[in-house]
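Hi support team,

I submitted a single chain yesterday and got back a structure, but I'm not sure I'm reading the token output correctly. Could someone confirm the output below corresponds to the sequence I sent? I've pasted both exactly as they appear in my results page.

Thanks,
R.
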Amino acid sequence: MKEPVTRIIAVSNRLPIHLVHGPDGLEIKPGEGGLVTALAPVFRNRGGVWIGWSGGSDDDDLAGLLEPASREAGYRLYPVPLSVDEVCDYYYGFSNEVIWPLFHDLQTRCNFKPRYWQQYLNVNRKFAEITTKHSAETDYIWVHDYHLMYMAKSLRELGVERNTGFFLHIPFPPADIFMKLPWRAHILRALLEYELVGFQTMRDRKNFIQCLRYISSDIRISGRGSVVTVIVGDKRVRVGAFPISIDYDAFARDAESKEVADLAWYLHEALPNRQVILGVDRLDYTKGIPERLEAFKDALSRFPELQGKTTLVQVVVPSREEVPEYQTLRAELYRLVGEINGQFTRSGWVPIHYLYRSLDRSELLAYYRLAEIALITPLKDGMNLVAKEYCACNLEENGVLILSEFAGVAAHLHRNAIMVNPYDVEGMSNAIREAFHMDRTERHNRMHKLREIVHHRDIFWWVNNFLEAAIAKDLRAFPALEEYMPDITIGI
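Hi R., thanks for writing in. Yes, this is the structure output for that exact sequence:
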């Protein structure tokens, strides 16, 4: 008798695509962001499914668009339709005005509206219904990120039995911050409905277990290492740390291409006789961009030898531009860049090149190759894949990584990066000077070790670790299909 097929069903807030309005109506473009960067190469052509919101409204006709998009992606795409009110209260409300700031230790930015919570429950149930429709009992349901912490609980309430795992891509806060959440016990108990809960770092796992102790005195921990079993009453849940990564080989290979090399050389010719410092961030108040600009200003003031010899290229990818806080941040960045350039610019040299737009892959990789210094200083970050991408693309191994101690990636890159506190402006400016003066031998030794770490712990290592902990299988159990999806159907 043929063994039932197990598929991986990825469920996330967004599908790995985004909708744009073109001259002929709606068009689909490939998605961006850490989750897509990480999972897309793993899922391709393995017969899997990805479920999420398309980014459009619930009355968009997507069937004709998603079929070719599914074929191009190499896995089936199924949309979860959301109304305007649902997007407002579940996504912009609970997800991004409550969980996002709270989990990044910025609780003063939270807006604890009860209607946000109710809509969060409603939408998690909708995701559970769509997942039930497009999955079988033999499938593994892998739920991603803070938008869907309640989904396994919603499946149970629907009477649906599925093997489910959850991975949190952002940090999990310590108890003194998490316990400010009015619905703290509901969230913790909902997470206990998953068979496996994964975090980016051991610190995040420790914080989660500490919070569980607040809602139950009857908690025991079984096992040792990166994955343990948490026993709370009659619940047994595996809890582990699985630091997410990138497709190292793909980044290194693409960075070596003639197209990227030519573009890097062109950019180098435009910025001669200076060291390029690179920052790449999504527009967000957790990324520490204003503090970074202030640190660069301080470095130019205190260390005059940097003037004319360094250029900061700061890339900011637009995000949530309709949200007032993000509009304020964007205006502040324009002000700071203008102020610094106005103070220090001289003939033939502008200290900051500010790019407020998305870069295509070739242009991004060219900047990675160009930059002698990467300045990655978030106030708090679950992992930060930009740090790993920069290392993978640093083929000459002459770059220096300046890294925030509050980024998840610091847990395994700290020994060979220059570590900084992003709230310490003078400390960051000292780090910029140290990187500027670092000799070639030390640069090479540090970057070589950084690249080895990222190469060893790539995205396939991450997925294998999670799946082995979840279902005692690795990617070899999901081989690439030669002829993919001949009978594809799209469910709306």
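A quick pointer for reading it: The domain at 248-456 is CATH 3.40.50.2000 (Rossmann fold). Let us know if anything else looks off.

Best,
Support desk
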